[in-house]
Write a structure and sequence with these properties.
With about 290 residues, this protein is an all-alpha fold. It has 9 helices and no strands. The chain has one domain. About 75% of the residues lie in helices and about 0% in strands.
Amino acid sequence: MANPCHVRSISLPSRSHPTTLKIQEELYKLRKWEASSTSTLGTIHNGLSGMEELYKCLDDLLSLQSTQQAISHHQHEKWVEELLDESVSLLDVCCNTRDVISQFKENVGDLQSALRRRKGDLCIESSINNYIRSRKKMNKDAKKLLAAMKKMDNKAGASPLLDQNHQLSTVIRVLRDVNAMSISIFQSLVLFLSTPVLKSKPSRWSLVSKFMQKGVVSCEEKHENVEELENIDFALSKISSDRADLETMQIAHKGLGALEVSIEGLDNGLECMFRDLIKTRASLLNIISH
């Protein structure tokens, strides 16, 4: 996977609370995933599952009395405002990504139903056109989200920690690292959604060359990033031009069916992450209001 942002490391004090060490462990797992996986729907779903476990650990950390006291005693400092602003921005990105996924899921389902029923060329052609339009709109929306997340990434952790105490500096680092990993997960998903519609079947190397020129993938061959959508696009182009044989129809059916299941999994993962983001923001607001 082309890493959407630079990999961060977490440097916690040697005598950290067990909950903090658990967070460090979960972050390490996610960074291994970030560095080694490709942007396929399956691997992105694994990343979302890892974030769910990470946020459970973060909730445990924010529930500690020592954490709450450390934050509440410094609630007027700039880093608190930054963390609250980041929580709103992450919620916005999550909501917008869910909207894009939801609309795409609806169009994939409609096209799958049309191909299954085969009620006439006009019906199928209309569904294919709707699917293509949704892909193009998804591409534009995804690029806007990527630009917004790049700004978030650049602003993250702007305030220095100064001479904070052990507990407080550890909590701040953890919160910043969890937010950074959240951005990275969203970037991976949105990068996949920004895959352009392919009108013909390119060779593997021509596809890699095309995406390298646009800066979407690294210098390594990353054709896996688009393969799941590429095969469907090619099959649909043949169906639209009346050049589809039985094998092509089967490719379209199989690809759309798998895509529908994968998108459903992503939608569920995003819903869980949305709830986790809400809970984290609520915990911070409750701490600083006391």
